[in-house]
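W.,

You were right to be curious about this one. When I first looked at the sequence I had no strong expectations either way, so I just let the prediction run and decided to look at it fresh. Below is the sequence, 287 residues in total, followed by the output.
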Amino acid sequence: MTQQKDNSLVKEFQKVLLDDKDFLKNLLAESLQSILQDEFNRFIKAGHYERNENRQSYRNGSYTRNIKTRVGRIELEVCRDRDGLFQTELFRRYQRSEQAFVLSMTEMYLNGVSTRKVTNIVEELCGHSISRSHVSQLAADLDKKLNLWRKRKLTSTYPYLVIDARYERIRTPEGVVSKAVMIVIGISEYGYREILSIDIGDSENETDWGRILKDLKERGLNSVQYVVSDDHKGMVKALQRNFQGSVWQRCQVHFIRNFISKLSRRKAKRMSLLLQLRKMPSFVRTD
């Protein structure tokens, strides 16, 4: 089980999401377009079809502008005003802050949307702060997009799975409670990794893991040959029920951590070196 304050898992998933260019390209395009629209609304001091006394100008169509990103070329619509005075700062600033923005987008997905973080990155991109209502709209749009991504059909073959979970404090109508964030990574026969599922459960019990694995099967996951995970009984039982015949191996990193935690600090260092030098296969067939 991954500890709550351990950020290594989040960083690993950020790397995997950065490799999934189709996923990030859509997220970036919609978020940048929304930020660009907000910048124009601030310039003319009015929203789309809004009538007010403070309006400085009017819309006069738009033109297309391409922006090159690490996940591909993105096409954006830039609004024009009647006087031709609007000039966006987005494109120049984005090239300087691209990595921070992309990592923030993945962190928004993995850890939830932070108003402060979104505000800071938009200030860096556009030179102005962003309203809470706009952050809420970005969050709502992001949720819709991510829900479609989470329910997407799995058309490729993933013979190898890596399964893990981390515990996070999550705000619910009943208050802030600890929940299990349960992640399944698929590895293709060519060695490419892809996050197949990220879901929330009350704990790492057989029921929650069974629901997640069943959903993966319904989305098209099959021919699973090999699974690596922590030695959690609920997960192993769910695996045996849903993917019979696959080989399960206990994650050696988790094994070493669990073993070392039982030792004194003086013995831990020596035993850690011995365990890393020794191969510890632990295969279990689930049929």
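Here's what jumped out at me. Residues 160-285 form a domain with the Nucleotidyltransferase; domain 5 fold (CATH 3.30.420). And, maybe more interesting for your project: Residues 190 and 238 are 27 Å apart (CA to CA).

Coffee later to discuss?

I.
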